[in-house]
């Protein structure tokens, strides 16, 4: 049975209290002591850079992960061993960016499957299902027909269905993970109204967003996470954007970056007004010179990976011009991009970057079939010596070129992914989150390799959500937001400037 | 993690070595249990050289289909239509020669082209329309057999092939059944394709990570298409050999062969989920099934029951189930072990 | 209206074929042959009910033909031993349910692909049956054919029973929670798990149900002749899958219904008599069935591509 509002025991204790939560994955400490408190009838914003620990925190509250230490208190009672089912029973609901709905079923049925208890042999009351769906959707002001199939809905509409589910379940605590990231302006305002409505009904809302104006408009309090720690909870009244940004990035550089020593040469890549409707990239213009590291900053979902996919021919551009070394290119497939000397080290290493079950040598030569094996005939000797060369060159720690990539650590897997593309001798190298999920030692090595490549005359586009990395490595920094390039900043910019551009803040503006 | 660390190649070799031991044990069993001396003092049964050649002769067609399916299954696909296509090609070949009046080599060449074309139909539907191979080839499985029946009106059997052609299917050349040489050549070609060229590499990569293959700039659609066209071509070769062995072409040629072929491939260590597998494993799988089938027929017990065909079919089906179960067990166990480890954020 | 576009277009195709028959071959519409045609298709319809469930839950079973044969022979042997009909019927269904459970356990328990599992069980069952029975027919005692009723009454009973199953399952799929779970599992097994359903259990049960229905259908077939043929079920799997897929049940799971499958079945069932009446040779039947399957799949493929699904 869904727990409804009357189940609240005493109003004085907070709805949800997290105290000194810690959580590690392998060696990486995702959370190191987070304190958080949510009152009934409050919208509490959770703010932090990418990787600050927000998603881990959500997963612990929804029962998907178990914390290593600390306590979770729901309505005054300490909860241990929270599971997804238990969280659901406690009235905790989460609206993810990617809804987990049934595409082939109607909206009414999707809502009903989450909410209806009872035996499998009971009769389905279709009119009641439709009425309930209609009422719930009306409550959040969504104009979605209960009889529509979910697969015909847009992503924001699907999110609204998720919200309706949460409402229907009588959730006391609703977590919203960047709910407006893919919404249009009008839909955003609809969602704000829903959030206010929830608050008015005594629901506690944890609101995660990168849009500062939203936080100022909606939230009562804001908690900032930084490096897996909560650095403070403040009432929103009396805070300024600048103060908030400083709270988010206010740390010293912990990493020493290798010094820039290359002198950028001729302009190699020119991108003019490039757009791709299918992936949401629009009006992007910039240049990259040979020997230059062009950092691409911005928040997750700002369109950086999408831009990289356009430049690599995975989702071809439908407008604008791409020129490489004076030649205008139409890139319709990765094969064409490779032929022109463009290389792309993708973000999702395990799914796209390497094939885990194949040996290192196969992975290294995978993009090089035409050049290394011009007759299609495999030359194992040549392959092996090439793989060995890169293993030595990039210091890949492994049993040998025949070892499967899956047996390597994350950092060494990343080096293999990098080696595959260096082997094609590219002119332009696009690196997408090259140090994500990589330990500190390997991170430094990868940074030195990137520097060396730039020194050798390679044009590098470095996409990273790690702000210090972008600042420390780049000669120039392009900042993206909403699928377009919003600012190009010099390499020695400071963190608040870049963050402000990425957040689309008006106070500080683009330098 | 421990299982992942184990050498990939060593694992494969191990599977094939195991299969080789099984094959040898199987052969020895039938050699001793299935060989007898008749009243006139002549050795008959499994142990005779004639019988060994017979095994080889009879395993060529299924062996060819298994060779055709190995690359398909390595790409995590399936082709259920190869048996039906064998029937259709046999009919087309008979018709081209008998009704069309074409010389045998021309008719054979045209049949090969038509087989590749039929494979191309599968390939187009699977790659251009991105339909699941299972349902596409289930449809063509019915279509090809149906066309064969329609062409022959269910009754025509093409016979009277010239001696020179029957030599391919019924005589020996250089000490071996003639068709065995064709089988060996195709096996060698497929082995080289899968194990020694970039094509085979790409098949494997597509089977393991189709998206990863696309990100590496590999021509995924073209390679997938190749695999199904090749399957059609090899099915046509099998059809010609089949016709030469029996001396006749009938619409029901090769009925149910796809099952034996799939069994041989899975038994040979190719994962039904794609990515891993080898042609020599498939050959061992074909041999294991052929020896089983013929060996059973030589056992006095089975001969008494007059049911060798059924028995070998039954055992093959059971064998496939066992091989499948064995193939997923390590995965399931590994899943159990790795469950406590959450993925890194 | 738009929701049932696929089903309606199959129904429209069926109407066109029926009209064409009315114009070019009015002989088709004699009551007795028509009833006989329906009686012959009745067992297929019952199996199709179960197959639709399996395909909606995103699986497939190509061993139903072999299951059908095994159940027929078992039922025949029991009847020949003097078991009364009211015991033979549940025994046949139980036999089918057991065979279905075997498939279900391998598919749901070990998560093996259903196509290969059922391919293997198909051959194992078929060859096992051949081995035991050597193709021998089972002679049935009096009172089994037409269940002891007259031919016409027996035919009506069989046809109406099959239609009863169709209506029961058609309504159950739509109006019972269990029916909706099947759709949910086929549409997205992971989302079903998150919504608190048990996809593996549902998959297993769906296979068991198909088996039981196949057992019943086998009995309905046994009751149509004085003997049981051990090969009675060969080719059934293809016929049933074709009917279901042509009727708009998506092979990718989660979509379609029994009314469409029924229309698909009738359409395919009309092919053979239509060929005869239109003086096309009957040997084209299989090829035309194959072409219809491919056509349906291609149409679905093109449609889902336009819809941008997945």
Secondary structure: elements and pairs:
The complex is a heterotrimer of chains A (511), B (345) and C (310).
Chain A: E1 16-25, E2 28-38, E3 43-47, H1 54-61, E4 69-74, E5 77-79, H2 84-89, E6 92-95, H3 107-115, H4 126-139, H5 155-168, E7 173-177, H6 185-200, E8 204-208, H7 212-218, E9 221-226, E10 229-235, H8 241-249, E11 267-276, E12 281-289, E13 293-298, H9 304-311, E14 319-324, E15 327-329, H10 334-339, E16 342-345, H11 349-353, H12 360-365, H13 369-372, H14 380-393, H15 410-422, E17 428-432, H16 440-455, E18 459-463, H17 467-473, E19 476-481, E20 484-490, H18 495-503
Parallel strand pairs in A: 3-8, 3-9, 6-7, 7-8, 13-18, 13-19, 16-17, 17-18
Antiparallel strand pairs in A: 1-2, 1-4, 4-5, 9-10, 11-12, 11-14, 14-15, 19-20
Chain B: H1 2-5, H2 8-33, E1 35-37, E2 43-45, H3 49-74, H4 82-98, H5 104-128, H6 133-152, H7 163-170, E3 172-173, E4 176-177, H8 178-196, H9 198-208, H10 210-215, H11 220-246, H12 257-267, H13 279-298, H14 300-305, H15 308-338
Antiparallel strand pairs in B: 1-2, 3-4
Chain C: H1 5-24, H2 31-56, H3 64-80, H4 85-110, H5 114-133, E1 138-139, H6 151-175, H7 177-187, H8 189-194, H9 199-222, E2 227-228, H10 236-246, H11 258-277, H12 285-307
What does this structure look like?
The complex is a heterotrimer of chains A (511), B (345) and C (310). In chain A, 49% of the residues are buried. Chain A has helices at 54-61, 84-89, 107-115, 126-139, 155-168, 185-200, 212-218, 241-249, 304-311, 334-339, 349-353, 360-365, 369-372, 380-393, 410-422, 440-455, 467-473, 495-503, and strands at residues 16-25, 28-38, 43-47, 69-74, 77-79, 92-95, 173-177, 204-208, 221-226, 229-235, 267-276, 281-289, 293-298, 319-324, 327-329, 342-345, 428-432, 459-463, 476-481, 484-490. In chain A, helix 3 crosses helix 4, helix 3 runs parallel beside helix 5 and helix 8 (241-249) packs across helix 18. In chain A, strand 14 (319-324) and strand 15 (327-329) form a beta hairpin. Helix content of chain A is 33%, strand content 24%. Among the domains of chain A are: 253-341 and 426-511, P-loop containing nucleotide triphosphate hydrolases (Rossmann fold, 3-Layer(aba) Sandwich), CATH 3.40.50; 356-425, no CATH class. Chain B is 74% helix and 3% strand. Chain B has a two-stranded antiparallel ribbon with strand order 1-2. Chain B has a two-stranded antiparallel ribbon with strand order 3-4. In chain B, helix 3 (49-74) packs across helix 12 and helix 4 (82-98) runs parallel beside helix 6 (133-152). Chain B is globular and about 70 Å long. Chain C is an all-alpha fold and 310 residues long. Chain C contains 12 helices and 2 strands, in the order αααααβααααβααα. In chain C, strands 1-2 form a two-stranded antiparallel sheet.
């Amino acid at each position: 049975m869904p727990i409804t509002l009357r189940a609240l025991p005493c109003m004085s204790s907070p709805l949800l209290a997290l105290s000194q939560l810690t959580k590690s994955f392998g060696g990486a400490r995702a959370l190191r002591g987070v304190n958080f408190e949510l009152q009934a009838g409050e919208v509490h914003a959770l703010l932090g850079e990418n990787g600050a620990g927000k998603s881990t925190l959500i997963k612990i509250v929804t029962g998907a992960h178990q914390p290593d230490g600390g306590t979770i208190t729901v309505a005054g009672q300490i909860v241990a061993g929270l599971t997804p089912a238990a969280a659901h029973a406690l009235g905790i609901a989460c609206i993810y960016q990617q809804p987990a709905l049934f595409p082939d079923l109607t909206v009414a049925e999707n809502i009903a499957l989450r909410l209806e208890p009872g035996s499998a042999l009971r009769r389905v009351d279709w009119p009641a299902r439709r009425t309930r769906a209609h009422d719930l959707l009306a409550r959040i002001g969504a104009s979605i027909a209960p009889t529509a199939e979910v697969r015909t809905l847009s992503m924001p509409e699907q999110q609204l269905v998720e919200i309706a589910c949460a409402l229907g379940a009588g959730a006391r605590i609703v977590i919203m993970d960047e709910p407006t990231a893919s919404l249009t302006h009008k839909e955003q305002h609809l969602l704000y109204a829903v959030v206010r409505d929830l608050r008015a009904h005594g629901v506690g809302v944890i609101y995660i967003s990168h849009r500062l104006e939203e936080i100022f408009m909606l939230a009562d309090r804001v908690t900032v996470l930084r490096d897996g720690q909560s650095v403070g909870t403040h009432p929103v009244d009396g805070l300024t954007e600048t103060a908030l940004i400083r709270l988010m990035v206010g740390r010293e550089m912990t990493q020493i970056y290798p010094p820039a020593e290359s002198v950028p040469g001729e302009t190699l890549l020119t991108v003019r007004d490039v757009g791709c409707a299918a992936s949401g990239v629009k009006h992007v213009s910039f240049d990259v010179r040979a020997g230059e590291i062009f950092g691409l900053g911005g928040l997750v979902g700002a369109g950086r990976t999408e831009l990289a996919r356009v430049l690599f021919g995975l989702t071809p551009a439908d407008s604008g011009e791409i020129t490489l070394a004076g030649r205008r290119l139409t890139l319709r497939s990765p094969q064409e991009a490779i032929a022109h000397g463009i290389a792309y080290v993708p973000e999702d290493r395990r799914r796209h970057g390497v094939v885990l079950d194949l040996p290192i040598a196969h992975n290294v030569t995978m993009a090089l079939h035409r050049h290394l094996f011009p007759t299609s005939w495999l030359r194992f000797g040549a392959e092996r010596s090439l793989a060995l060369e890169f293993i030595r060159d990039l210091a890949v720690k492994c049993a040998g070129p025949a070892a499967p990539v899956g047996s390597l650590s994350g950092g060494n897997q990343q080096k293999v992914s990098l080696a595959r593309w260096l082997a094609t001798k590219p002119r332009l190298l696009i690196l997408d989150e090259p140090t994500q999920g990589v330990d500190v030692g390997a991170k430094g090595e990868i940074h030195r390799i990137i520097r060396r490549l730039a020194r050798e005359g390679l044009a590098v586009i470095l996409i990273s959500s790690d702000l210090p990395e972008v600042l420390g490595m780049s000669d120039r920094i392009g900042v993206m937001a909403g699928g377009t390039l919003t600012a190009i900043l010099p390499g020695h910019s400071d963190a608040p400037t870049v963050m402000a551009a990425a957040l689309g803040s008006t106070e500080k503006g683009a330098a | 993690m421990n299982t992942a660390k184990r050498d990939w190649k060593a694992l494969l070799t191990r599977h094939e070595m195991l299969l080789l031991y099984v094959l040898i044990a199987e052969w020895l069993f039938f050699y001793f249990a299935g060989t007898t001396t008749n009243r006139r003092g002549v050795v008959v049964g499994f142990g005779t050289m004639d019988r060994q050649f017979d095994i080889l002769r009879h395993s060529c067609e299924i062996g060819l289909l298994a060779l055709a399916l190995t690359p398909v299954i390595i790409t995590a696909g399936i082709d259920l239509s190869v048996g039906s296509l064998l029937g259709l090609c046999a009919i087309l070949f008979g018709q081209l020669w008998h009704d069309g009046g074409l010389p045998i080599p021309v008719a054979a060449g045209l049949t090969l082209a038509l087989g590749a074309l039929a494979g191309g139909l599968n390939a187009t539907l699977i790659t251009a329309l991105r339909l699941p191979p299972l349902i596409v080839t289930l449809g063509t499985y019915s279509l090809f057999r149906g066309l064969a029946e329609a062409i022959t009106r269910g009754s025509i059997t093409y016979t009277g092939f010239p001696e020179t052609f029957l030599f391919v299917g019924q005589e020996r050349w250089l000490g071996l059944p003639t068709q065995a040489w064709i089988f060996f050549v195709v096996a060698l070609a497929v082995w080289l394709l899968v194990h020694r060229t970039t094509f085979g590499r790409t098949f494997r990569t597509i089977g393991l990570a189709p998206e990863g293959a696309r990100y590496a700039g590999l021509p995924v659609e073209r390679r997938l298409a190749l695999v199904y066209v090749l399957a059609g071509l090899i099915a046509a070769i099998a059809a010609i050999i089949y016709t030469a062995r029996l001396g006749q072409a009938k619409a029901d040629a090769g009925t149910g062969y796809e099952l034996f072929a799939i069994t041989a491939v899975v038994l040979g260590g190719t994962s039904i989920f794609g990515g891993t597998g080898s042609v020599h494993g498939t050959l061992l799988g074909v041999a294991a099934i052929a020896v089983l089938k013929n060996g059973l027929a030589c056992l006095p017990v089975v001969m008494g029951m007059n049911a060798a065909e059924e028995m070998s079919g039954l055992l093959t089906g059971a064998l496939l189930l066992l091989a499948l179960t064995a193939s997923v067990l390590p995965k399931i166990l590994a899943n159990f072990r790795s469950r406590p480890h959450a993925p890194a954020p | 209206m738009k929701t049932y576009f696929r089903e309606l277009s199959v129904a429209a195709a069926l109407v066109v074929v029926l009209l064409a028959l009315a114009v070019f071959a009015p002989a088709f519409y004699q009551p007795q042959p028509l009833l006989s045609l329906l009686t012959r298709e009745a067992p297929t319809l019952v199996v199709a009910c179960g197959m639709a469930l399996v395909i909606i839950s995103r699986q497939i079973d190509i061993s139903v033909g072999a299951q059908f044969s095994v159940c027929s022979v078992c039922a025949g042997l029991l009847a020949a031993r003097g078991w009364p009909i009211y015991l033979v019927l549940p025994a046949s269904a139980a036999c089918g349910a057991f065979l279905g459970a075997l498939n279900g356990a391998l598919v749901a328990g070990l998560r093996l692909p259903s196509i290969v599992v059922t391919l293997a069980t198909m051959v194992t069952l078929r060859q096992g049956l051949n081995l035991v029975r050597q193709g021998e027919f089972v002679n049935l005692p009096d009172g089994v054919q037409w269940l002891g009723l007259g031919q016409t009454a027996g035919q009506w009973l069989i046809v109406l029973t099959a239609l009863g199953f169709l209506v029961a399952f058609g309504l159950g799929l739509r109006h019972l929670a269990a029916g909706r779970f099947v759709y949910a599992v086929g549409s997205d097994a992971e989302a079903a798990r998150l919504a608190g359903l048990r996809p593996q259990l549902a998959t297993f049960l769906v296979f068991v149900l198909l088996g039981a229905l196949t057992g019943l259908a086998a009995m309905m077939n046994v009751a149509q002749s004085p003997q049981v043929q051990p090969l009675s079920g060969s080719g059934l799997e293809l016929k049933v899958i074709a009917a279901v897929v042509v009727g708009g049940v998506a092979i990718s799971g989660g979509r379609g219904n029994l009314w469409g499958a029924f229309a698909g079945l009738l359409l395919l069932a009309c092919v053979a008599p239509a060929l005869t009446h239109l003086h096309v040779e009957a040997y084209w039947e299989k090829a035309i069935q194959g072409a219809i399957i491919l056509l349906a799949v291609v149409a679905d493929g093109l449609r889902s591509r336009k819809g941008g699904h997945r």
